[in-house]
Amino acid sequence: MAFSTLTAPTIEPRHLILDLQSLGVRLSDAPASLSARKGGAGPTDHKAITIGDRTVMVPVFTGTARVSPFAVEAPALDGTALLTHNGTPVARIKYPRQARFYALQTFDGIPYWKIAQLHGADVLATTVLQNCIRYTDRATSCQFCAIGQSLAEGRTIAHKTPEQLGEVARMAVLLDKVKHVVLTTGTPNVIDRGAAVLCESARGIKAAIDIPIQAQCEPPRDHGWFARMAAAGIDTLGMHLEAVTPSVRARIMPGKATVSLDRYFDAFAAAVDVFGRGQVSTYILAGLGDTEEAILDACERLTALGVYPFVVPFVPVSGTPLENAPPPPPEMMKRLLPSIGRMIARSEITSATMKAGCGKCGACSALAGFEV
Ligand code: SF4
Q1: d(Cα 3, Cα 7) in Å, to the nearest integer?
Q2: Tens of pLDDT, residues 120-179
Q3: Whole-number mean pLDDT of the chain?
């Protein structure tokens, strides 16, 4: 990765991204932009910044970010801004421009930015159902999740219809050169666990524009859904473990943990049969309580199956029960990611070979830089 303008970065580029994603950054004067996200699913309380040739999501609204050694000064006239570490210049960064499609609205008057958001550099991402059976009850909700916040604050709508998604995706491709789509969902029931609404959504998008789509949901009870999802135009599938140790899963996500690790691994194997090796992935949030050994063991098992383990540092989101929990120390990510990157490379399921999705985008983790 090349850094612009500064003679030499004082921190190794991959480690700089990793440090920023664990510690966050203080912004002195970022341009008002919808590219900063507060609440919701996915990379919440983050802002997209471009360092060298990579756009990454960095926490900016979290408690940790407010006391981070990293700070960004006000942008210069050329749009770049100085990133400092304890006051020492580290690199020049840029804020990606606001997506052009954000200025549009649907025929029924819904602003496009409430339907889908630009993630990273070229991903259109949306939560098709902004409700989840597990969310309203703290006895079952995932403690890191903020899926209801953006809905409560009127920054999104509860259900994005297939027609709305198709309309927004088409314009995001035409105006903003979006390259792939990520569809996630709250869990609407314990039968298909979101697979049905994801199929409808994918059909709506593919009817409007030919673009690779990743869908993300819990494992449906019936593995026949994987073939139905592929037939609906879903190219890759994410089923997110978040944590890999039964006791950690039970503590952090008591509802979702009722779907056991064995069920997940059965579903991974069945999904790889349909979508192919490297086209099925999972999110693992390092820092929720799993040991490094447990994460590495899980990644060995996943990569052997052909499942891409997208390991990201946990970011405590304001307004959630874990808002004051510490993020993982950067040293933990520095130990984990090189080993996991080698497993991915050895299994020939690198992010570059993925057709769509978080692993391909890579903005929430420095992992792709370690796939050698
Ligand atoms: S990695 Fe996934 S969640 Fe993160 S910015 Fe990219 S598409 Fe969004």
Answers
A1: 9
A2: 999 999 999 999 999 988 889 999 998 898 899 999 999 999 999 999 999 999 999 999
A3: 92
Cα 189 to middle of ligand 1, angstroms? 25
| 8 A C-beta contact, residue 2 and residue 350 | no
Among 57, 126, 354, the mutation site with the greatest number of ligand 1 atoms within 8 A of its Cβ is 57
pLDDT tens column, 216-243:
999 999 999 999 999 999 999 999 999 9
Nearest ligand 1 atom to alpha carbon 357: 7
Nearest CA to ligand 1 atom 1: 358
pTM of the predicted model as reported, rounded to 2 decimal places: 0.93
- As a whole number of angstroms, the distance between CA 143 and CA 135 comes to 9
CA 300 and chain centroid, separation: 21
- Does ligand 1 come within 6 angstroms of the Cβ of 358? yes
Strands 26-27 and 80-85: unpaired
Pairing of strands 307-313, 236-238: unpaired
Report the separation in Å between the CA atom of 295 and the middle of ligand 1, taken as the mean of its atom positions: 20
